[in-house]
Amino acid sequence: MAQISTDIPARLDRLPWARWHWLVLIGLGTVWILDGLEVTIVGVIGPRITDPSSGLGLTDSEVGIAAGVYVAGACLGALFFGHLTDRFGRKKLFLVTLALYLAATVATAFSHDAWYFYLCRFFTGAGIGGEYAAINSAIDELIPARVRGTVDLVVNGSYWLGTALGALIAIPALNTSLLPAELGWRLLFGLGAVLGVGILLVRKTVPESPRWLFIHGRGEEAEEIVRDIETKIREESGKTLEPAHGEMRINQRSHTPLSEVAATLLRRYPKRTTVGLSLFIGQAFLYNSIFFTYALVLSTFFKVPDGSTPWYLVPIAIGNFLGPVLLGRFFDTIGRRTMIAGTYVLSGLLLLGTAALFNAHVLTPVTLTACWMVVFFFASAGASSAYLTVSEIFPMETRALAIALFYAVGTGLGGIIGPVLFGRLVESGVVGNVVVGYVVGALLMMAAGLVQWFMGVEAARRSLEDIAAPLSAEQRQMV
Fold this sequence. Notes:
This protein has helices spanning 8-13, 19-29, 31-49, 60-88, 90-108, 114-142, 148-157, 159-173, 181-203, 210-215, 219-237, 258-268, 270-291, 294-301, 309-327, 330-333, 336-359, 365-392, 399-427, 431-455, 464-467, and strands spanning 3-6, 247-251, 473-477. It has 21 helices and three strands.
């Protein structure tokens, strides 16, 4: 491979916001709507698919296991496809992973046995997990540095649009006076497939990451893509673009060995690795524990009818979406360190308060939902920033696999243990047992916030190459 000089990162970072950037967000960022839809569907149909008349008849514990299987698939899918994303490019993999999701979610609708349901949930999760690595990499490498935090938080927060959509659609779908008990929940999975096809059509127009291309021996293709983007933005704005300041020399490579990735994370950036793991474990345990079992909590402890539980999810989803949208810009202005640590610690404190009120038996379904809405307003901004953090603090050659690794390890510990544990805690019917789970989730969030405060990297408004120079970079000249 050759050695080249390039100013592509600087040229991408200095671009004004334009219609082209919206195309990237619609084509790539909307995948989080699908993930939110998937998690919500399983959450709201939990009480329904435990009913023998549903045609599935799982137990409460098996619903928790299904949630854990989905997360396990997401973890393994993230690792497998994350490695392929760094090796073969962002675009190929964000098309393949979406296709896998589409096939698996349609297959889920035909479940009649627990083992088949688990299998479909595993491959649905694998597709979504692969999306996390490919999409976060591509978005961060295409979005200007000055707004990367805002955009990333809004994109990750769009997960909750899928949550709200899933909850609203579930209301008529789970109404047995409109649809048979064995049919309504199956139709919900078809909704994800319909949205996925639309996203796939838009996504095909999004280009490969120029940052990935020039490192992997395809410099001319990268130049062509960037020139095309610049031409479109000049024509749209009618103005001359500002000069790009910054050039770097790259020793091009075909791929990065896994041993070099491991050395980068463990030896070169051990503190950053600790931060990434802490953020992911904290948010994964909190979210997967509560959202995979929230409907069971309402039906078990408050006797809320199965068909009514989705109504309580809508305000929680709104709070989760508003958090990243309203707080996102502060991650670029106040900075990552303060905002990430603050949102993690504050959401943990608020959850401790909710646990105390729940334990005192003073909450109703409405007031418990209100408490969750406030908790997740801050927790959602923090959780979204976890993906932002691990996608920007490691070198270009390791980015997708690093995202996948942190997602897999953090989500594997918090996202598999959490739902299975909470499923059993809810099944016990004892309020105090569920409270213990809430306290554990709160403490993990607060601990992660403290790790970020003391060890986090300030990446606001900085080029990805300034935060972590590419492994293949020989030098960077500021001109």
